[in-house]
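User: Design a sequence. Structure:
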């Protein structure tokens, strides 16, 4: 089992920045990838960013490339999502999730943190 706790959401004006954090605990040795997803009201959940647990490879959705970066703090089993130049359309509930070696799926999810960008 892996437990995930997100933090760092909030209300920000368009053009501002936020940094989301996802702390993993439990069987972290089984994690192979951590990802961020978001879901806006009335919309489907969408992929935002992911990082291999080695920290070597990162992946970003086209909608956030050039504005968001994902990184990992190896000492704290934490992944960070730095969000710059935020737009109102980035408003959503942001979730982190992890892939574990046993299933190769995003099987563990956090509770989510709300990001609201005002125009």
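Assistant: Done.
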């Amino acid at each position: 089992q892996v437990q995930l706790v997100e933090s760092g959401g909030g209300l920000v004006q368009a053009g501002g920045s936020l940094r989301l954090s996802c702390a993993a605990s439990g069987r972290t040795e089984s994690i192979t990838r951590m990802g961020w997803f978001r879901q806006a009201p009335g919309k489907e959940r969408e992929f935002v960013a992911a990082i291999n647990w080695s920290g070597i490879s990162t992946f970003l959705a086209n909608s956030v490339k050039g504005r968001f970066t994902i990184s990992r703090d190896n000492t704290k089993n934490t992944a960070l999502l730095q969000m710059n130049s935020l737009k109102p359309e980035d408003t959503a509930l942001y979730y982190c999730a992890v892939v574990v070696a046993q299933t190769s799926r995003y099987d563990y999810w956090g509770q989510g943190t709300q990001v609201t960008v005002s125009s």
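DSSP finds no helices and eleven strands in the chain. The mean pLDDT is 95.
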